[in-house]
Design goal:
mainly alpha; 2 domains; 9 helices; disordered N terminus
């Protein structure tokens, strides 16, 4: 009968192998920790760089424009928005059968008009970020409600299809700019988030620009009322958005606020 006896590994070699494996594991662990630290530093650095890139909005000029837009928005709501909420007024009578839609559009749009400056200011200065996020959700929901009503009003307008298309385009620009601002912050693209929020609020101010153009063209007696409505429905958001894009991209090119 033959017996097969397993040969034992020399004790010294076993100890050496274990020490070698332990040292390899230790080195690998330290490498992973260093790599993790490097990734954390990269994220923090990118966030700091993002804050530095967008600090131009804290300048006195930008602060003045931001709060001036809030004052203009409040005046606009009081003068042009509130009459639509009064039953039997001349303003609401033009929307017979569509009263709930115009009321939802004006109320939700007014909320977005007021929340916008606070939202941008808090996000830019990095103050009270909890309030910034809360106001952000309120701004987002108000735009979803107001734009949904705007789409319905655009396709059911009695002022012609060109006027309706202008308002429909305004709604698309509103939803698109706000949606991209929300998507950017979910991906921690803070500089992109801020830029798209600026575009979104410029489109929100389209209601103000619409009224200003109508009043100015009426005082100057430019064209017929139908022509003014059509031009106003396009110019109220396309021109301000183009000018805003020129400022944003121009600052990147020339490196000045």
């Amino acid at each position: 009968m033959q017996f097969f006896v397993a040969r034992k590994r020399p004790r010294g070699l076993s100890v050496f192998s274990n020490d070698f494996a332990s040292s390899q594991f230790y080195l690998a662990l330290r490498f992973e920790l260093y790599a993790f630290d490097w990734r954390i530093c990269a994220v923090v650095g990118s966030m700091s760089e993002s804050v530095q890139k967008t600090n131009y909005l804290i300048s006195p000029l930008w602060a003045f424009l931001l709060w001036a837009s809030l004052i203009v928005g409040v005046v606009f709501i009081a003068v042009a928005g509130v009459p639509y909420l009064i039953p039997g007024s001349d303003s609401i009578s033009g929307f017979a059968g569509r009263e709930p839609w115009i009321i939802a559009h004006i109320v939700a749009g007014s909320i977005a008009l007021i929340l916008g400056p606070f939202q941008i200011w808090l996000g830019t200065t990095r103050k009270a970020m909890a309030y910034h996020r809360t106001l952000g959700y309120g701004y987002l929901v108000s735009i979803l409600i107001s734009s949904s009503a705007a789409f319905y009003l655009a396709v059911t307008t009695k002022n012609g299809w060109m006027f309706g298309m202008g308002l429909f385009g305004l709604g698309v620009a509103w939803v698109l700019s706000t949606g991209l601002a929300f998507a950017a912050v979910l991906k921690h693209e803070f500089d992109q988030h801020q830029e798209w929020m600026i575009r979104s609020y410029v489109v929100t101010l389209g209601f103000v620009f619409f009224r200003v153009f109508l009043v100015a063209s009426s005082v100057l007696e430019i064209g017929m009322i139908e022509e003014r409505l059509v031009v106003a429905s396009w110019i109220c958001w396309a021109f301000p958005l183009l000018a805003t894009e020129g400022v944003i991209q121009g600052r990147k090119i020339f490196g000045k606020a």
